[in-house]
Amino acid sequence: MKFYQSKLLKSFSDIRHCYTTKHSRNVAFHVNDNTESIIANHKRLAQELYYDYKSLAHMKQVHSNAVKIITKKENFDAPPTCDALITNQKNIPLMVMVADCAPLLFFDTEQKTIAVAHAGRAGAFSNIIQNVIDVFVKDFHSKLENIYVSVGPSIGECCYEVGEEIAQEAKALGLEYAVAKRANNYFLNIRKILQTQLLNAGVKKENIEISLLCNSCHTEDFYSYRVEKETGRFSGVILLNE
C-alpha cells in the first residue's frame, strides 16, 4: 500500500501516522462507492498501521470549524459531525478525509495529544485551526511550543481558481495576501492561510511542515473533486502508540 509520511512527525516514536493515496483506495462512505469495498480498504490500512479498524474515529465533514473531543465511547459506525477531532487516548486512530481540502495532523509531544482537521476554503476562512489550538490549550493543557503540525497534500494555488465573490470575501476577512490574480482570474492559496493562522495561533515556525504536493496536479496519486467530480477520498491518519 502506497502512502506518504511527514518527515516532521516521523521523528516521533510516540505516534504512527500516514497520508493515504489513490493506491490505498477510497476510504469515504459518502461517495457512492461499494460499502464492502470501503470497509476492506479500511481493514488494509489498519493492517499497515497496526490498529483495529473498528477503533478508528472519523467524521461526517461539513466544512465547519467544529472540533470534537474523542473518548473511548465513540464508534467507527457512528462518526460525529464536525471537521476536527482531538484525543489523548492511545490506540484510537483519528482520520481526516480529503479530495482537495487540506488534511492537518497535530501532535503535542508533552501532553501526548493528537488531532486531525479538515481545512478547505470554509475551514480556512472560519479559522478552524484556532479552534483546534484552543482545545489543545484549554482541555488538554498543552503549551504552544510543544504542538507540531503537518499539513498534507492539497490543492495548490496553481489549480485553485475562485470567482471574484470568493476573492472579495477573502479580502473582507483580511486574507487578501492569499489571493493571486492572473489574466483576470483569481487563485486562492489555502496553504498560505493555514500557515499564517498556525503562526498567529502560537505554533512555532519550526514545528510546522506543509506539503507542496498539489493533489489536483497529481491525480495519478490523489483524488481531486475539482478534477474528477465523482471521486473517492484520500486521508490523513494519526494515532498514539501504547
Explain this structure:
With 242 residues, this protein is an alpha+beta fold. It has a single domain (3-155, 191-240), classed as CNF1/YfiH-like putative cysteine hydrolases (4-Layer Sandwich), CATH 3.60.140.10. Helix content is 26%, strand content 24%. The chain is built from 7 helices and 13 strands. The protein has helices at residues 7-10, 35-49, 121-125, 128-140, 164-172, 190-201, 225-228; strands at 3-4, 15-20, 67-69, 84-87, 94-98, 102-108, 113-119, 147-151, 161-162, 179-182, 185-188, 208-210, 234-240. It has a 6-stranded mixed β-sheet. The mean pLDDT is 95.
List keywords for this structure.
4-stranded antiparallel sheet, globular, single chain, about 25% strand, about 240 residues, CNF1/YfiH-like putative cysteine hydrolases, alpha+beta, 6-stranded mixed sheet
Given as residue ranges, the uncertain stretches (5+ residues, pLDDT < 50) are: none
CATH architecture assignment: 4-Layer Sandwich
H and E order:
EHEHEEEEEHHEEHEEHEHE
At the third CATH level, what is the topology name? CNF1/YfiH-like putative cysteine hydrolases
Strand content: 15-25%
What is the subunit arrangement here? single chain
Tell me the radius of gyration.
17 Å
Task: Label the overall shape.
Answer: globular
Structural class: alpha+beta
Please give the CATH class. Alpha Beta
Short description:
This protein is α+β, with helices and mostly antiparallel strands and about 240 residues long. The chain has a single domain (about 5-155, about 190-240), classed as CNF1/YfiH-like putative cysteine hydrolases (4-Layer Sandwich). Helices cover about 25% and strands about 25% of the residues.
